[in-house]
Amino acid sequence: MLFLAAAAGATGLFVGRANEDPDAGWNRGYHAGIRAERNAQAHEATRLSARYQPGSPGFEQIYAAGRREGRRLGRYEGLAQGRRAGYKAGRTSVLPDFPGGWRGSHWYVVRLEQGSDKRLRVGARVVVARGHQYGPCRADADRICATPSL
User: What is the CA angle 115-118-119, rounded to 5?
Assistant: First the structure.
């Protein structure tokens, strides 16, 4: 009889364990962790948004850092823009408009003359070509002439 009772108990234990999902404990723990994380994130978001409200120390700190960075970038951009504008103004005042413009890949022979504000400016120019000699013209010494080399 004792044997029969032991066999029935063992059978009930094995059948009960076989019906239970072996991953049920893991699933319960996983879902409990997800819920805890969601609740913590909601609390953290509320705490962070309160930290950066206008007038709070966190807000003042990031506002001051943004202002410093903006001023630094503004000074740099202002210097760069001023440098470009100054270069362009200098180039247009020194290099007058000639037909065809100026090209950095060409060599020029230029004649300098007095400008309107007592500064020198380019009065005449000639593009340098191979096999020519350049100098003042015989008929008009204020012009630049090219003669073929001998």
Answer: 65
148's tokens? 């073929």
pTM: 0.35
81-114: pLDDT as tens digits? 888 888 887 777 666 666 667 777 788 888 888 8
Positive or negative torsion for Cα 19, 23, 25, 30: negative
3-state secondary structure of 127: strand
Helix/strand/coil for 34: helix
Give residue for tokens 């970038």.
Answer: 73
Please calculate the CA angle 130-131-134 and round it to the nearest 5 degrees.
Answer: 90
Per domain, the residue ranges of the chain are 2-87, 98-148
Phi, psi of 120 (to 5 degrees): -80, 145
Q: What's the CA gap between 130 and 149, in Å, rounded? A: 9
User: Which tokens hold the place of 66?
Assistant: 């943004």
Element (H, E) at 110: strand 108-114
Any idea which residue has 């930290």 for tokens?
A: 51
Residue linked to tokens 């005042």 = 93
